[in-house]
């Protein structure tokens, strides 16, 4: 083979290799770019989506009756089917289903000296006798806004000379001398929703 032909073949080989290498590089680069473009489209579509708004909580006390005490300015709401009775300055709520033999409930709102029962700052579990074999126990902390209070329960021991019955409730400081008691009494042994009813009425309690 002549030297001139050999040179031509070498040049052609180099050109072919260059074309193949360039094509492979371009093909590989285009394949890498496609997922990036797809990701950009997905990201753009996702950014345009707006989260669904969650439903507002339902206020079950919105249509209840309301009471405001003229002396101490506390207020609360209670179910429309309940009865409010004032007894010597104390407010008592009663609910007796008119057509069924269901449970009856009683909630009392009354003001007492701050020295009665446990101190609001006592540890949880602290107890104190408030009447003959009637003990008040702190079961937790309770605050109404920036006003301090305590969750309580009363237990009546056998042989008590009082007409007291077990209750759950809260006591809240009204001033430096007095506290507001809110206690719920279950007058039937088969009451099962005492905590739920009590919490609903407590959620409506205001001091101003």
How would you sum up this structure, described in words?
There is one protein chain. The protein has two domains: 1-44; 65-202, Protein Transport Mog1p, Chain A. Helix content is 26%, strand content 34%. The protein has two helices and ten strands; from the N terminus they run αββββββββββα. The protein has helices spanning 3-48, 194-202; strands at residues 65-68, 75-78, 83-87, 90-95, 105-113, 127-131, 134-144, 147-156, 167-173, 178-186. It has an eight-stranded antiparallel beta sheet with strand order 3-4-5-10-9-8-7-6, with helices on one face. The model has no long low-confidence stretch (mean pLDDT 78).
Topology, element by element:
Elements lengths: L2 H46 L16 E4 L6 E4 L4 E5 L2 E6 L9 E9 L13 E5 L2 E11 L2 E10 L10 E7 L4 E9 L7 H9 L6
Antiparallel strand pairs: 1-2, 3-4, 4-5, 5-10, 6-7, 7-8, 8-9, 9-10
Give a quick rundown of the structure.
By secondary structure, the protein is an alpha+beta fold. 26% of the residues lie in helices and 34% in strands. The chain folds into two domains: 1-44; 65-202, 3-Layer(aba) Sandwich (Protein Transport Mog1p, Chain A).
CATH overall fold name of the largest domain: Protein Transport Mog1p, Chain A
What's the shape? elongated
Helix content: 25-40%
Alpha carbon gap, first and last residue: 113 Å
Name the beta content range: 25-35%
Major β-sheet annotation: 8 strands, antiparallel
